Amino acid sequence: MLGLAITLLIGFFLRLTGLNWDQGMHLHPDERMLIMVSDKIHFFTNLNPNFFNYGSLPIYLLSGLNQIVNSLFPTTLSSYDSMLYIGRALSLLADMLVIFTVHKLSWKLFKNRQISILAPLLYALSFFPIQNSHFFIVDTFLNLFLLLTLYAILRFVERESRTRVALIAFFFAAALTIKITAVIFIPFIGAVILFQKRKSLGNGAVTLVIFTIELLLFSFILMPFAFLDWQKFIADVSLQIKLASDPYVFPYTLQYVGTIPYIYYVKNIFLWGLGPVTSVLSIIGCIAIILELKSKYLKRKLKTQHLLLLVFLAFYAFYFVSLGRSAVKFMRYMLPLYPFLSILAAYGLMKLSIIWKKGVIIVFVVAAFLWTLTFSSMFTKEHTRISASNWILKNIPTNSVIAVEHWDDRLPIYHSEQYRFEELQLYNQPDNKAKWEILNRQLERTDYMVIASNRLYVPLQKLDNCAQYKACYPITSQYYKKLLGGQSNFKLIKEFVVQPELRILKWSLQISDQSADESFTVYDHPKILIFQNVSKDKSGL
To answer: pTM above 0.85?
Structure first.
């Protein structure tokens, strides 16, 4: 238990550090939306969120906890701004529970003390879960309840009982009422129940009916207005399904046009989310488990323990195969894979330690820890949008005209009333002469331009071929190439960037993560570019 306690302490410290990363400025758009919706909920007079892009359970958790805090401590702690910290504390707690559940799950799968300590440790050291536990977003909670659903399924496979079916229904209902994505597991759970009841399909059918009734009941309790306001629920969910299948639906998903299914996710997990060290270990672990299961099968020595491993592998393979082909590929969609990959990595490391002795464990764990410290260092530095805002207020004259891009945060994020703004609607279609006549007139009036992230200039530069892309931006692509290449009338005068950095005494190592998925950088450390119009006639291009 000492090893688990140390792991939990490390995980807590890494997730607590920099929790106020944006100094309370609400710089994560999903957080803003969830908190705005939560702020309208009041138990028990108003429970309709009138918003179903995400499930209601996290909204109810935040709103309910906020009311409890307000009743115990009637201060400003329960204000809209302070709900941000309550929400992030809930995310931190959820991910701490994931660490503990990874320990329980790995013990159930392997009955090996070494693996049951290494698996939660490697998860605790994985940067992407750390990063997302700094945000009040639904994916952290989905990760937890899908993991608990799997744990309940494995207990049912070990020994059938009505109580264990009810536990599956409860945890799965919680996952569904956090994010509708979990619905993909309905056939998987049904198949597991029928397989366990294969000697009596009649009993299997009865168990399925009981499970369905319990699932609907728990779902109604946790998200009642999905049933009571079903038309709004269906409309919102349908839009989200459309988004997942078409990157052209919203401007901010154009970044995924042309990305390769499965490969795009794997690349971002390997390079950024999990890191090369743990990723390599997880590949080794996966191969080792498959080979062991194959060997046991050929020797007719499969036991219940091996069946649990098969269900474990199938659960996450089913998730990856189902979602990995989606047109829109935010990194957070694969957050539920990280417990799975950490357990595989622990198994792989255990196998390596048998070959190369115990010292290899220390080497790999230290390497994983240093990798995570490199990325976690970003939470100890001032947010680039705050740094840029302070610089603008100090260096750009009052009443200057600042051009900003739509669909992105306007800078400066405070005291913006001191300036006049031109909002450049660069996503607009068609990308033709008429559009650019308007934009050029705006640019002529502009003194300074602030690009608050890579949200527009990365995808719009690549969408230059109208024969290849449904939405194309040939003129905008050329505009960005000239602007970023120093060939326009706007000169780059200031750049704000925070990179992952490892410092040991006077030695330091920086890693550029600008090639990562946009969502990996755009919330907590976006690259900011500030340009000045240096032409006498101020013509845009």
So the answer is: yes
